[in-house]
Specification:
Strand 1 and strand 2 form a beta hairpin. By secondary structure, the chain is of the alpha+beta class.
């Protein structure tokens, strides 16, 4: 180590790099904890499509309909109710996705989910990973269907009332 001004600058620079490194490690640890602890399913695969991360909610959701299989088959989904199933890794690699999709279970049934997916790239633009956040929206679908059915019933009742009143006014 030098005892002159250059040595002092070097010491200050080392101290600053140490501080930045510590803050970076703390932020990374916090981010990892958030992803691990969230109730939202988080799934990631590398550029080749190999799964690299799935938090507990993702493992539970992606194993839907596959029981307690030690290693459930590759997750598949359909981007619309009538679309053909595709591997989740393919949907992620095809580009950003945000909206409703359907996870395909072992028996072929479709579980409605909200899928938000994207791609991470390095500084040169090369794909590093694909990721997805997935939320089960089954209950929302049930509620929407119940509301739509209720609207149909209310419209029929309103029509019956209109016909009844029209008949009464003619008599």
């Amino acid at each position: 180590r030098r005892a002159d001004e250059l040595g002092e600058v070097g010491d200050s620079l080392r101290g600053l790099l140490g501080l930045v490194s510590r803050v970076h490690r703390e932020e990374l640890a916090l981010l990892k904890r958030i992803v691990k602890e969230t109730s939202l399913a988080v799934y990631a695969c590398d550029a080749a499509g190999q799964a690299t991360f799935a938090n507990r909610p993702a493992r539970r959701l992606l194993a839907h309909g596959h029981g307690d299989a030690a290693s459930p088959p590759e997750p598949t989904l359909a981007l619309t109710p009538d679309a053909a199933p595709m591997p989740l890794r393919q949907a992620l690699a095809d580009g950003p996705v945000a909206g409703e999709a359907f996870l395909i279970s072992a028996d072929g049934s479709r579980l409605p989910v909200f899928l938000g997916a994207g791609t991470l790239r390095d500084g040169s633009g090369a794909v590093v990973a694909h990721y997805a956040s997935i939320a089960d929206v089954t209950e929302m679908h049930r509620t929407r269907q119940a509301l739509e059915q209720r609207n149909v019933e209310l419209a029929a009742a309103e029509q019956a009332k209109t016909v009844f009143l029209a008949n009464m006014s003619h008599e």
